[in-house]
Design goal:
Layout lengths: L5 H4 L5 E5 L6 H10 L3 E6 L4 H8 L3 E4 L18 H17 L1 H8 L7 H16 L6 H55 L19
Parallel strand pairs: 1-2, 2-3
Length: 210
């Protein structure tokens, strides 16, 4: 099946399999597509709260990216031309995310450290934490951020810097994701045809004589 526009595929009853469905971006996408009437399945590396939530909605999620997981799914697109575009988009997204401490640094009126130093340090902390198989990566990430950012903010300002940076990076993405999800939901709902129930035959009135 060839689909030139992914919007033409997003129709009620169509099937889609999402690899890494428990991720921050994939889980909301699965909810949107499921709410639009599509049959969604997915796979992920491990159990998580997002996986449990998706299962509660009736979405089938398997643990382990096995070839059998995509059997029956109609939308598995292989397009090598998308790889450079996705790499560039991911680079821009991560650079914007890692630039939040830099913005907070200048907002606090601090000087003396360059943009590459702060962005590079944030990237190294994220890479180091993501490479460790820890059961609670959030604590390790925040601890690493505090230890690394003391070099730029100092011991007195590093705690407020963490709170402001995490507040911006978390709530801004949450707000943006919520707006996009709402927009997609409204557009999808407006496109769905309204089901018209067939007319019932009129019931004869009067007395029936047998």
């Amino acid at each position: 099946m060839t689909v030139n526009n992914i919007r033409d595929y997003m129709q009620p009853g169509r099937r889609a399999h999402l690899v890494g469905i428990g991720g921050v971006s994939m889980a909301p996408l699965a909810e949107v597509l499921h709410g639009a009437g599509m049959v969604i399945t997915g796979s992920d590396r491990q159990e998580s709260a997002a996986v449990t939530h998706l299962r509660s909605l009736g979405i089938q999620v398997t643990i382990g990216h096995l070839p059998e997981s995509v059997r029956g799914a109609d939308c598995v697109r292989r397009n090598p031309a998308l790889v450079p575009a996705l790499l560039g988009l991911t680079f821009c997204q991560l650079t914007a995310l890692f630039s939040v401490p830099l913005v907070v640094y200048h907002a606090f009126g601090l000087t003396g450290s360059g943009a590459l130093d702060i962005i590079g340090t944030q990237a190294l902390v994220t890479l180091a934490v993501a490479s460790l198989p820890l059961p609670g990566a959030v604590g390790a990430s925040e601890g690493g951020f505090v230890a690394a950012m003391k070099l730029f903010f100092g011991a007195g300002l590093v705690t407020p810097a963490v709170l402001v940076s995490r507040g911006i990076s978390f709530y801004s993405f949450l707000l943006l994701s919520g707006c996009v999800t709402l927009l997609v939901h409204l557009r999808t709902r407006n496109r769905q045809p309204v089901a018209v129930s067939p007319r019932l035959p009129k019931t004869a009135r009067g007395t029936v004589v047998t």
